[in-house]
Structures are given as C-alpha cells and as structure tokens.
Amino acid sequence: MSEVTVKQFAEAVGTPVERLLTQLKEAGVDIRDADAVLSDEDKATLLAYLRKSHGREGGASDVAEPRKITLRRKSVSQIKLGGTAGGRGSRGGGTPARTVNVEVRKKRTYVKRSVVEAEKERQEAEQLELQRQEETARQAEQAQQEMVEQGQAEPVAEQTEAPAAPAAPGQEPPPAAPGAAGAAA
Predict the structure, then answer these.
(1) Between 52 and 157, whose confidence is greater?
(2) How much is the pTM?
(3) pLDDT by residue (tens digit) across 13-47?
(4) Which residue, 5, 20, 128, 149, has most beta carbons within 10 Å?
(5) Which string of DSSP letters, residue by residue, matches 140-177?
(6) CA 179 to CA 181: how far, in whole Å?
(7) Cα 155 to Cα 145: distance, rounded to the nearest angstrom
(8) How many angstroms separate the first and last alpha carbons of the chain?
(9) CA angle 166, 172, 176 (to 5 degrees)
(10) Confidence grade of residue 119 (pLDDT, cut at 50, 70, 90)
C-alpha cells in the first residue's frame, strides 16, 4: 500500500479521525495531526495493537476465522384483514378493512464443524477417563472384598475346628466343614 494521510486512512477504514488518532497514540505511533503521513509499518503497528486489545494475539499474519456465525433475518409483510359488511338486515356499514404489519425475526447460528468435532472429542475423552476411573475403583473394591473374604475365611475355618469336641464313645464324630477338610488331613 502507498503512504496515505491519517485523514484518508480514517475515511477508508470508516472511523472518525479523532478516534483513529487516539488509537494510533495508544499503539505507540507518534502522529499528532490528521494531515500526517501513515507508513505501512505504522499501519501494521496499529493493527497488531488493535488485535491485542480486542482479544486476538498475534500479528498481521495471524488471521483467525470466527468459530460461529449468527445470521439474523427480519422480514416484514402486510396482512389485510377484511372488515364486516354489516349483515342482511342492518343499515350502515360494518368495520372497515385493516392492514396489519407482521414482522418475522429469524436467528440462525452456524458453528464450524471443527469446533463441534473438537467438542465431541473432548467429551468422549472425558467419558473414557470417567469410565477408567470407575473401572479402577471397581477393581480395587473387588480386590478389597476378596481380601476381606479370604481374611474372614481363615478365622471361620479356625472357629469350626476349635469347638469340635471329641465324640462320645460309640458315636461318630460330626462331619467337618468343607474348608476344614483340607486342614485336618
């Protein structure tokens, strides 16, 4: 681009000259009046400052596309409502026909597929992580239950063996518990 004055640049951009001068001053460009000449470097400095102040990081080469676009449509139409004719036996007219303005507003938001797909992938990753955590918790609980069962099985076997009294003469000894059969042999 060729070098232009601040006034010409303000007209091309569509902003007031005073506002452009304050933005240039905030960006660190040393220009004091509307007839001063702007170089391409000054314009690039202003662009970088404006992008940074409006939330976008990066320089002139970093052009980010919007994630979603919202379209608002408004259509206005007229509907004519017929009046009443007055009926058969009445004298005089009824109500006159009226025209009613109807305004319909539509709002559509289009989201980039890459944004939607990234959101789906993030949600799926979260669900997989939750499933993994639940599975590890379930496995730990099962292992703990098995440890408790094994720990309780040993004292139960000891309890069944201890109270077994010697059989009275002429009687058979009571049958041993299934877990204690291996211990007695």
Answers:
(1) 52
(2) 0.33
(3) 899 999 999 999 999 988 888 888 888 898 899 99
(4) 20
(5) HHHHHHHHHHHHHHHHHHHHHHTT-PPPPTTSPPPPPP
(6) 6
(7) 16
(8) 101
(9) 70
(10) confident
Confidence tier at 59 by pLDDT (50, 70, 90): very low
Q: Whose CA is closest to 43, among 55, 27, 22? A: 27
d(CA 165, CA 74): 97
What tokens were used for 161? 């063996």
Q: Which two tokens stand for residue 163?
A: 């109270």
Tokens for 92? 């005089």
> What number of residues does the chain have?
185
CA–CA dist 13, 15 (Å, integer): 6
List residues bridging with 37 in a β-sheet: 5
Helix (H) or strand (E) holding 168: none
Can you tell me which residue has the tokens 């720990």?
Answer: 151
CA distance 183 to 185: 6
The owner of tokens 């010409």 is 8
